[in-house]
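User: Could you check the structure of this?
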Amino acid sequence: MDHYLTHDSPSKAISRFALPIVVGSLFQQIYTLVDSAVVGKYVGEAALASIGASFALTTIFICIGVGGGAGASVLIARYFGSRNYKRMKTAIFTSIIGFLVLALALSAFGLVFSKNLMALLQTPEQILDMAVLYLNIYFYGLPFLFMYNIISALYQALGESKIPLYFLIFSSVLNVILDVYFVRDLGFGLAGAAYATLLAQSLSAVLSFFVFIRKIKTIKTENTKIFDKKELGLVSKLAIPSIVQQSTITIGQLLVQSVVNSFGVEILAGFSAAMRVESLIIVPITSLGNAVSSYTSQNVGARKMERIGKGLRASLTMVGLYAVVILGFLRVYYSSIIAFFMNEASSSLAIETGIAYLNFIGFFFILVGSKHCVDGVLRGLGDVRVFTFANIVNLFIRVSLSMTLAHKIGIGMVWYSVPLGWLFNLIISTSYYFRIKKRSYKLKDF
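Assistant: Sure, the predicted structure tokens are below.
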């Protein structure tokens, strides 16, 4: 087993570890872009709006899987860093079982209440049935989605980020092929895009699971428990705040979505296209934050606390460079990006809405990137109270401003609330980081 996260220079270690995660996460988002683009061009604006109406809700479930996996990986990375392989394997098997049970429960909940949820979000009547259809097919595949995300997080806890990348590339390419075939060639419409995603993700999840189990069996330990209540409690203690942290942006999107929905289908379609782009941009940032978390936790396990601050500085440098590149790209290509999601029949209002949001939000990705890096360190340290509070403040600002002022000032108020939430989150998390740094990162053992 390679312990390079505790030996290589911080910038080299994080770059080596994070790059495959970032690339993989981008591929994971490709299917959402392809769904939107193929449906928008071959089915129509109403179908595109249907995907957009359900997008924030589906992403919350993704965040539960990703956040839960990220939390579990902190514990497992700590065991790996300290070379406590017996407890590490028990925590791995316990995490897989726990998250599979959770996925089945959430899937059942979603199938029963999908229409109620979409109605609660004020989904326009003319697209309600299509949105529910897309959502139901998504819920059938939720256990496979959870399985893939937890396995990827466990790989990352062990410092292995390339194998999940290979499976993501496979899944994304297969999804693209099936999208075009089902929607354009067979004429299955919106349901075709949903089934393409279901099939691609399910196959990738099953294959990654068996490869991971085979890898874990090569680590020789004695009398490893398959399930342990104590380890489940420790995993939950870290996973729940991580789920909150990962979900904050998306929960904000979900609640704000209800505000946007009330402005009508045309604005909803434009906003949906822009949100697809924003989500794609934020995914590498989120992945870097998760990489910082594993890096921090392994170094805590190895008792190399001096490497933590160096790792944070290295990750913030990466975020700064990324934010500058993204801003330049959006400033040049914003019109073409939105046009990618539209067809000849798309309204000018839909196009103008998407362009307006991208033009504004491009200046502020440095805030959300820095927030994820600092939060990643706090999660890796196992100190999750304050960054959970910071993310709740972020959520409150976004939702309260959008719901109270959007219909008074205009849809632009939705735009302004986003960076304000990110900024306050960053201030709170960073202040607390410097406070615990002064205490030399004194921690309690698990």
